[in-house]
Amino acid sequence: MKITFSALKDSLTPEKKASDGTLSRFLFRPLAIPVSWFFLHLSFSANMVSYLGAVVCLVALMLTLFPFPVFHIIASLLFILFAVLDCADGTMARVSPSKNPWGSFIDAMAGYIAYATLLISLGLSAFYFNQSGASVFTSFYQRLPLGSGFWIFLSALSALSNILMRLLYHAFREARQDLGPRAKQTKAPGKRLSEEIGVTGYLPILYLLSLIGGFTSIIVILYTIVYGGGCLAVIARMIREVESSK
Questions:
Q1: Residue 23 is part of a domain; what is its CATH number?
Q2: What's the pTM?
Q3: HSE-up of 6 (CA within 13 Å, CB side)?
Q4: What domain range is 187 assigned to?
Q5: What does the pLDDT look like over 67-121, one tens digit per residue?
């Protein structure tokens, strides 16, 4: 089957366009068009590209285990590559004549791996390098038992909060569907914000810029606040809906 750039571009539905974050719409998806065309002509499936994206993230995490700045820069570029691949696998799936029922699961798995590895990598970058942003908080975190490992702790907390929030909401949505017509239908909380700031949004770009500008620790703190607070807010919202439906 011959796939053209135009067909790949036109495969994006209006609903998907509306849900895209700014960087996905104007950077990652345009880059994903030639990437999708390339992999399709290599007879790759969308799932294979999802697997590739997960591997790219794991390689990036492995690079940040070493205290060499260039390795961390390469890792941040790999996370940007993941964002492009994540857009590409969806594009490929939409033009594929045969739909794989496991596609959404594999895509979600790659996304979870991306969030965990990127946020942990951020913490490792802040841990290894005495950056200008970190100096603002030196007197604070040096008093903690974790010392400079405070940044790894925060990044792990951020990753855990984000993944827990997503898993709980999916479990909540499944349980709500069992109620049938009695279920109160609401949109996923914070979905638009998540698209803007997540792994296919500003997060990988901010990682690269923070490495160059020396403020990775600031990004770690901001995302811990956003994802930690978001997780608590989503849990509270779900509990209120559960209790009000009794």
A1: 1.20.120.1760
A2: 0.88
A3: 0
A4: 5-244
A5: 999 999 999 999 999 999 999 998 998 888 767 778 889 999 999 999 999 999 9
